Structures are given as structure tokens and as C-alpha cells.
């Protein structure tokens, strides 16, 4: 089934135009899709974009992604509790 | 996959959980607005890992779930007409209308097609000039730019046999409706990250201020959700109520301005019915006068509808966070994803479907995916 909200980041592996509309081929971990870059014309090969209904709605800011992960690393002022964990996606 | 597995790291998740546990001193109810977040929370068992003071309430942010029976009924009527090709996102097909869903219309021989992008519907219209092609434009602010672009392109390309049945919904008015409801127990909101990727974060500032409620813009992976909760709890404990962005890699304060310009051109604000909730003022989009020729409701005579929503299904209460899916007596008994009684069981993002898929009953430990 094709979901309304997909919203996972995919990596641009090629850009092209179709009838004047900027398009990209985006790789979602092995599955590729053609998506429209009309709202993210600055997006380039190698960058990650978030797609909804076949359109890139934002280019992922990789610096911000790493900043978040660094922040999470620094958190943890209390000893770990219990054995429960969150599973890999 | 990059930016997915990193944001599901179990060690970092534990750090965030510890931080939340160290901060919290009393009970707080936090609503995650978006169905994608609900799905992530249930799938990873985040609600069960949190300290017991922190209660997560599932919100109305599943576009499939809130599309009212009235809109489905209109779609069913239009799709049943001769010479129509009705195009929809796949997960709308099994959403119950008053008496039928779109899937049964297709089974009865009508041309109902599933599209991935609304632009595909425009192309279908171009390839079938002797047919009337109708696109079912549903969703929140995330899918709206794509749907707006489809209508815009149809006009630019002079495709006159294309129209859109528009049933768009907006998040901020829904948050406001929940926060002002006398039954509301919500202390803080996790706002839907991708909605903010499009619209920015400013729309939420007046709400946070007026109702003294923290609003944290939050992503969808486990660490994103935990960080959103961490920040919400920190604000609540400190007596603050501001808009905070916990999803900076995908959300900028101003949002996507190109998309917003397109939305302004194509859509106007309108009152909208929400399934199980009722009408929320100024909570939807409809086509502007400029695009009236592309409005399927004007193009087709949709007869007066006798709309009735299920009386057994309690999805309205589920969508407002008043009950958990497992508190519905039909849950897992007469209502399953194969035989859904309500939209919250149809959609993969619906709270009922998430509970069924990952938990089956209210209290069994999460199995993960
Ligand atoms: S379990 Fe089924 S009947 Fe109950 S609220 Fe959910 S969708 Fe409706």
C-alpha cells in the first residue's frame, strides 16, 4: 500500500528535469524513487531529502543531525537504569 | 540506513531515558500529534520504557484517520460515475464511508487507481483526454505542497480533464481544539516535525503562549521522540511554555517558503469536519477561486449525502487522546486491520493499527519490529 506520509530520508543519486520540472532519483536504502524537487531546487547529488507524496519537502541538514547525536552523547548524568532498550529500526 | 539507525541507537536512547527519569518529579501527559510518531512509539515500546510519571497520549495526526466519512462518500460518488478515473493514495481505499469504501467501488468495476505522487494523476489525465481524472487530495501540511503543485501544473499545462477532491486538514487548529476541550489532559505537545518542515515553527508560538503549553517540534525516530519528550518534561518541570525545535536537521524556523507560496496560491482556509471529532473552525484548505475549475466538488454533481459515521467505532475519542485503542471494546475482537471498523485501524499510522500490530493488547510488552 502507498502511504500518504512516507517521510523517511533518502539520498539523491541523480538529478534531472522532466518537462521543465526539477526531479531527482532518490535512494531509500536500496529502493529508488523518482521525486520532484520543485520545492527544494537547491538539493544536489549526495544530499539527503525528506519526501512526502513524491516531493522533497526539505533537505536534511547533516551538520544539525550530527549536532543532535553529539548532544545525546553528552547527556547521561545519571547511572544507566535497567536492561530495557530500544530496538534498532 | 543512514539517519535512521543512528537515531535508533539503544545506548543513546538509554541516556535520554535516564535524563528524563532524573528530571521528572510528577505526572505529565504529553501528546504526540503525529501518527508517524505514534507508530514509532508503539513499535519501539517507548511508552513502556519511560518513567511512569510520563504518560503519552496519542493525537489526531493521521491524515487518513481524520478524513471524515463525508469526504469518502463524495469520493465514492464521484468514483462510481461513468467515464471517471479516480486517483488516490493507497491507504485511503479501505477507509469506511457511510456505507462503502473506495475499494468496494473499484471491486464493482470502477476505475480507481492508486498513485504515489499527485503528479502521476496529472499525467494520467494527460494520457486519457476522453476521461475525467479526479485526484483525492487529502493530508496535512506535508502532502499539501505536492497536491497544490499537481493542481497548479494541470492549469499550466492546460489539462482540463483533471480535478481535485480536496479534503486537507491543518495541525495548529487541531492542537488548539484539543487544548481548549474541557476533557483535555494534555500538558505539552510534540508537534509533527515534517509539518513544520513545510510551515515552519512560528504558527505554534501564539498557541504555546496563550495556553501556557510547551510545544516541542519533534522528529520520528526513537531518539527524536525521546529528545522531544526530554525537552517537554524539562519545560514542564521548569514551568516554561515555549516552542522548541528538537528536529533541527529537518526543520527551519521559516519552513519551506517556496512550498508556502504555492500553498497560498492554490489553497484558502476553510472550516473542516474531522472524523469522530466534528467540525473544527478554519482547520482545512480548499481550492482558491483562481483554481475553481479544478474543484471536483463543483465539477461533479455530488448528491446530497446522508452521512453517518459508525456508532460502534470510538476513533473520535482515540484521536483526541481520550481513550487508548485497547480501551475500545471492539479492538482486536470485531475490529482488526483485515476487517477495520474505523479509519484508525485502516491506516498504518493509525493508533489502533499500531497497537494491534505491535502489541495486540494494552499491556503485553512491546515486541519491536
Ligand atoms: S479499535 Fe476499531 S472500532 Fe475501536 S476505535 Fe479503533 S478503529 Fe474504531
List the helices and strands and how they pair.
The complex is a heterodimer of chains A (89) and B (369).
Chain A: E1 9-18, E2 21-28, E3 31-36, E4 48-52, E5 55-59, H1 62-74
Antiparallel strand pairs in A: 1-2, 1-4, 2-3, 4-5
Chain B: H1 10-23, E1 28-34, H2 35-43, H3 46-49, E2 54-61, H4 63-66, H5 69-79, E3 84-88, H6 102-107, E4 111-114, H7 118-127, E5 132-139, H8 144-156, E6 162-169, H9 171-180, E7 188-192, H10 193-199, H11 205-211, E8 215-218, H12 222-238, E9 243-245, H13 257-266, E10 267-274, E11 278-287, H14 296-299, H15 315-319, H16 343-346, H17 351-358
Parallel strand pairs in B: 1-2, 1-7, 3-4, 3-5, 5-6, 7-8, 8-9
Antiparallel strand pairs in B: 6-11, 10-11
Helix pairs in contact in B: 1-12, 2-17, 7-8, 8-13
Bound molecules: iron/sulfur cluster.
Report on the architecture of this protein.
The complex is a heterodimer of chains A (89) and B (369). Chain A contains one helix and five strands; from the N terminus they run βββββα. With 89 residues, chain A is mainly β. The longest helix of chain A is centred in the C-terminal third of the chain and has 13 residues, at 62-74. Mean pLDDT of chain A is 80; it is low at 1-5 and 77-89. Chain B has three domains: 4-63 and 178-245, Rossmann fold, CATH 3.40.50; 66-170 and 257-299, HypD, alpha/beta domain 2 (Rossmann fold), CATH 3.40.50; 316-357, no CATH class. Helix content of chain B is 39%, strand content 19%. Chain B contains 17 helices and eleven strands. In chain B, strand 8, helix 12 and strand 9 (243-245) form a beta-alpha-beta unit. Chain B is globular. The two termini of chain B are 15 Å apart. The interface between A and B is large, with 52 and 75 residues. Bound molecules: iron/sulfur cluster. Iron/sulfur cluster binds at residues 312-315, 318, 325, 328, 330-331, 335, 340-342, 344-345, 352 of chain B.
